[in-house]
Write a structure and sequence with these properties.
With 131 residues, this protein is mainly α. The protein is 59% helix and 6% strand.
């Protein structure tokens, strides 16, 4: 037997939306950490591959330089799976890119990378180019 749906109060609805915003921000920070450092393993000393380490160094340099286009390319090429624009912007936000750059500037950078064949963009999201 299904429970009847109740209508939330305005305060409950506002709290829900805040939780969703917080979740998106935290997810972006976690994804940014994992992109830079990998997933930490408790009680296991794991060593990243040279390729991953080089990509992490390149990503760190792109972030320090404020080069969002390079950061998008590196994140897309290192990602295990395709990601939505929302996920990509969450990672960039977690890396410290300013919110005002995650709108038109972001889409311009993605369009240029796609046009140059550096990343793949379709209805399933953003990902690395497949040969």
């Amino acid at each position: 037997m299904a429970l009847p749906r109740m209508k939330p109060t305005p305060e409950q609805a506002a709290a829900y939306h805040q939780w969703c915003d917080d979740r998106d921000e935290i997810s972006g920070r976690i994804a940014a950490f994992e992109t830079l450092y990998g997933v930490p393993r408790r009680h296991l000393a794991t060593q990243a591959s040279e390729v991953h380490a080089a990509a992490s160094d390149d990503l760190a340099a792109a972030v320090v330089d404020g080069n969002m286009t390079a950061a998008i390319e590196i994140i897309a090429s290192e990602a295990e799976k395709r990601m939505s624009h929302k996920e990509m912007r969450g990672i960039l936000r977690g890396l410290g890119f300013e919110e005002d750059r995650l709108g038109n500037y972001y889409y311009t950078a993605v369009h240029r990378l796609k046009g140059k064949g550096r990343i793949s963009v379709d209805d399933n999201g953003i990902g690395k180019m497949v040969a």
